[in-house]
Amino acid sequence: MKKVGQYRFHRDHGAQAGRILQLLEKKYGRPDPAHLKLADIYARDVFGDAIYAPWLRVYAAFSGAFKEGWIPDNYYGGVVVPSMKGGYGRISNLKPMSRLIFGGDAFPDVAYFANGLFFTERNVVVPEQELKQVVFRQCDKVVFKLDGSARGKGIYFFDRESFDCELIRSLGNGVIQKFIVQHPLFSAFASKSVATLRMTTVVDELGHVSVRACFLRIGRAHDTHIRNDDEVCVPVDLVTGELARKGFLSDWGATEEHPDSKVRFAGVKIPAFSDCVDTVLQLHGKIPFARCIGWDVTVGDDGKVQVMEWNGEHNDVKFSEATQGPCFSDLKWELLNASAV
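The line above is the sequence of Alpha-L-glutamate ligase-related protein ATP-grasp domain-containing protein; the predicted structure tokens follow.
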């Protein structure tokens, strides 16, 4: 069964990478065959198997060059994740655990539902008839996120009138978060959904935590929240917090402005960026045994940093590797032994 699972995992990644390579060819023309050949050779010589070539081919076609040190996304998921995180990374799927682990006020959590009980953000059991009062004590709108929710799925919005305890019970375990009123800079791009910074942090062999990649995820004008299949992603300079001149749509097509609001990316700096960096570094220091974490962070209209989610499993590295990578070349991940998917 283990081998069957690995086969399906790499088959699916190969198919996904193949579709993206076709999109890139259609948009930007055929990639240099020499670069693709280097990707094939590098997959075999460095990672030990041609199954890791498809994502390297995507990175090379996107970048117009081949760069040593890139990590294929299926190598990251199949080898790095189990080796550098194990079961500890899976804790991130259990959303009521976040405040218990990290403490502080970085997460906008106001309540939880788990195994038939409602809790406050301090893990005090709340009778169902008192829950609405607790939830809307500091806000007028909330978001319920199911455990393991990802890619914009498993997310539900409530106000005081529509809030329904029985509906939440029927949906399953998860977190109730206050709806964040985002910084005006983000609203200029898209006002309905909350823009987030996807920040990737790692813990090296000496225990030092660092930010390795960052991009801004922006929703479309018609979306109430960011959806993986219809988002705009813009690389962010790790030092200055400035947006790249070009962002990319879900089909990897480049754009210099948001497709709906027409607000341009060039020259825009993320508000409170240094605070965002400090926040994720501090938080990752509290769970260093999950060696690589993806964080979804935003900045409210009050300038305060809020952590929407954290992902200790297979967080996305392919976009960062293609646009900002190699992001992890000094960590020697290519030397890790393959393990179960």
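Note on the example: Residues 109-178 form one domain. Residues 2-28 form the longest helix (27 residues).
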